[in-house]
Amino acid sequence: MAAKSGPMVRIKMELKRFTENPPHGMALDMEKTAEDAKMWFINVKAAQGTIYEGEEYVLRVKFTDDYPFKPPEVVFISEQVPCNPHVYSNGHICISTLGNEWSPTLDIQAVCIGILSMLSSCKKKEWPRDNDSYSARLKDKSPDYRYFDGTYRDSQC
Hints:
The chain contains four helices and four strands. The protein is globular, with a radius of gyration of 15 Å. The protein has helices at residues 2-20, 30-33, 108-121, 131-137; strands at residues 26-28, 39-45, 56-62, 73-76. The chain is an alpha+beta fold.
Protein backbone atom coordinates (compact mmCIF):
# COMPACT_ATOMS: atom_id res chain seq x y z
CA MET A 1 0.00 0.00 0.00
CA ALA A 2 2.86 2.40 0.76
CA ALA A 3 4.21 2.03 -2.79
CA LYS A 4 1.05 3.61 -4.20
CA SER A 5 1.08 6.55 -1.79
CA GLY A 6 4.10 8.16 -3.51
CA PRO A 7 2.26 8.97 -6.74
CA MET A 8 -0.74 10.35 -4.83
CA VAL A 9 1.47 12.67 -2.78
CA ARG A 10 3.02 13.99 -6.00
CA ILE A 11 -0.36 14.25 -7.77
CA LYS A 12 -1.93 16.17 -4.88
CA MET A 13 1.05 18.52 -4.74
CA GLU A 14 0.77 19.16 -8.50
CA LEU A 15 -3.00 19.63 -8.19
CA LYS A 16 -2.46 22.35 -5.58
CA ARG A 17 0.19 24.07 -7.73
CA PHE A 18 -1.93 23.86 -10.87
CA THR A 19 -4.99 25.24 -9.08
CA GLU A 20 -3.01 28.15 -7.63
CA ASN A 21 -1.05 28.97 -10.79
CA PRO A 22 -2.50 27.40 -13.96
CA PRO A 23 -0.89 28.03 -17.35
CA HIS A 24 -2.47 31.00 -19.15
CA GLY A 25 -5.70 29.98 -20.87
CA MET A 26 -6.15 26.83 -18.79
CA ALA A 27 -8.37 26.11 -15.81
CA LEU A 28 -8.97 22.95 -13.85
CA ASP A 29 -12.58 21.79 -13.77
CA MET A 30 -12.60 21.20 -10.02
CA GLU A 31 -16.10 19.72 -9.99
CA LYS A 32 -15.09 16.83 -12.27
CA THR A 33 -11.54 16.59 -10.93
CA ALA A 34 -12.68 16.38 -7.30
CA GLU A 35 -14.32 13.03 -8.05
CA ASP A 36 -10.92 11.38 -8.49
CA ALA A 37 -7.57 13.12 -7.94
CA LYS A 38 -5.96 10.68 -10.41
CA MET A 39 -8.09 12.06 -13.25
CA TRP A 40 -8.09 15.75 -14.05
CA PHE A 41 -10.20 17.72 -16.50
CA ILE A 42 -8.61 20.90 -17.81
CA ASN A 43 -10.50 23.53 -19.80
CA VAL A 44 -8.30 25.02 -22.50
CA LYS A 45 -8.91 28.36 -24.18
CA ALA A 46 -6.82 28.86 -27.33
CA ALA A 47 -4.44 31.81 -27.35
CA GLN A 48 -5.36 35.09 -29.01
CA GLY A 49 -3.66 35.80 -32.31
CA THR A 50 -3.46 32.10 -33.26
CA ILE A 51 -5.43 30.11 -35.82
CA TYR A 52 -7.34 28.58 -32.87
CA GLU A 53 -8.34 31.90 -31.30
CA GLY A 54 -11.81 31.70 -29.76
CA GLU A 55 -11.81 27.90 -29.65
CA GLU A 56 -12.10 25.95 -26.41
CA TYR A 57 -11.17 22.36 -25.63
CA VAL A 58 -11.05 19.95 -22.71
CA LEU A 59 -8.03 17.86 -21.77
CA ARG A 60 -8.36 14.72 -19.66
CA VAL A 61 -5.29 13.76 -17.66
CA LYS A 62 -5.13 10.23 -16.22
CA PHE A 63 -2.38 9.36 -13.77
CA THR A 64 -1.22 5.78 -13.30
CA ASP A 65 0.32 4.10 -10.27
CA ASP A 66 3.66 4.44 -12.13
CA TYR A 67 3.50 8.24 -12.20
CA PRO A 68 5.86 10.15 -12.34
CA PHE A 69 8.12 7.42 -13.75
CA LYS A 70 5.73 6.98 -16.68
CA PRO A 71 3.82 9.82 -18.32
CA PRO A 72 0.17 10.43 -17.60
CA GLU A 73 -2.35 9.86 -20.36
CA VAL A 74 -3.32 13.27 -21.74
CA VAL A 75 -6.00 13.51 -24.44
CA PHE A 76 -8.47 16.02 -25.80
CA ILE A 77 -11.98 14.83 -24.96
CA SER A 78 -14.31 17.63 -25.92
CA GLU A 79 -16.51 17.33 -28.97
CA GLN A 80 -14.17 19.79 -30.62
CA VAL A 81 -10.65 18.40 -30.97
CA PRO A 82 -8.15 20.90 -32.42
CA CYS A 83 -7.32 20.11 -36.03
CA ASN A 84 -3.54 20.06 -35.77
CA PRO A 85 -0.78 17.98 -37.40
CA HIS A 86 0.15 16.70 -33.92
CA VAL A 87 -3.34 15.90 -32.65
CA TYR A 88 -5.35 12.96 -33.92
CA SER A 89 -9.09 13.30 -34.42
CA ASN A 90 -9.64 10.82 -31.55
CA GLY A 91 -7.97 13.35 -29.20
CA HIS A 92 -4.56 11.70 -28.90
CA ILE A 93 -1.69 14.18 -28.76
CA CYS A 94 1.62 13.47 -30.49
CA ILE A 95 4.06 15.39 -28.34
CA SER A 96 7.48 14.08 -27.36
CA THR A 97 7.13 14.92 -23.66
CA LEU A 98 4.36 12.33 -23.44
CA GLY A 99 6.49 9.83 -25.34
CA ASN A 100 10.23 9.21 -25.50
CA GLU A 101 11.14 12.55 -23.91
CA TRP A 102 9.06 12.05 -20.76
CA SER A 103 11.02 12.61 -17.56
CA PRO A 104 9.91 12.31 -13.93
CA THR A 105 11.10 15.90 -13.51
CA LEU A 106 8.27 17.09 -15.77
CA ASP A 107 4.87 17.94 -14.33
CA ILE A 108 1.41 18.59 -15.74
CA GLN A 109 2.06 22.32 -16.00
CA ALA A 110 5.05 21.64 -18.25
CA VAL A 111 3.00 19.24 -20.39
CA CYS A 112 0.19 21.80 -20.69
CA ILE A 113 2.58 24.59 -21.64
CA GLY A 114 4.01 22.30 -24.33
CA ILE A 115 0.51 21.61 -25.68
CA LEU A 116 -0.33 25.34 -25.69
CA SER A 117 2.94 26.07 -27.49
CA MET A 118 2.25 23.35 -30.06
CA LEU A 119 -1.20 24.81 -30.77
CA SER A 120 -0.03 28.43 -30.77
CA SER A 121 2.82 27.83 -33.24
CA CYS A 122 0.67 25.99 -35.78
CA LYS A 123 0.14 27.81 -39.08
CA LYS A 124 -2.32 25.44 -40.80
CA LYS A 125 -5.23 23.39 -39.50
CA GLU A 126 -4.56 19.88 -40.73
CA TRP A 127 -4.75 16.35 -39.28
CA PRO A 128 -1.64 14.12 -39.08
CA ARG A 129 -0.85 12.22 -42.30
CA ASP A 130 -2.00 8.89 -40.82
CA ASN A 131 -4.97 10.24 -38.86
CA ASP A 132 -7.59 7.91 -40.33
CA SER A 133 -5.71 4.65 -39.74
CA TYR A 134 -4.35 5.64 -36.33
CA SER A 135 -7.66 6.98 -35.02
CA ALA A 136 -9.56 3.92 -36.28
CA ARG A 137 -7.00 1.53 -34.76
CA LEU A 138 -6.97 3.27 -31.37
CA LYS A 139 -10.57 4.49 -31.19
CA ASP A 140 -11.62 4.60 -27.52
CA LYS A 141 -8.20 3.25 -26.43
CA SER A 142 -5.30 4.83 -24.60
CA PRO A 143 -2.70 6.63 -26.70
CA ASP A 144 0.14 4.47 -27.98
CA TYR A 145 3.02 6.61 -26.74
CA ARG A 146 5.50 4.16 -28.28
CA TYR A 147 4.16 5.50 -31.58
CA PHE A 148 5.32 8.99 -30.64
CA ASP A 149 9.01 8.09 -30.72
CA GLY A 150 10.29 11.41 -31.96
CA THR A 151 10.44 10.31 -35.60
CA TYR A 152 7.19 12.05 -36.49
CA ARG A 153 8.01 15.15 -38.52
CA ASP A 154 5.68 17.62 -40.09
CA SER A 155 6.50 20.79 -41.95
CA GLN A 156 3.06 22.33 -41.40
CA CYS A 157 3.72 23.37 -37.79
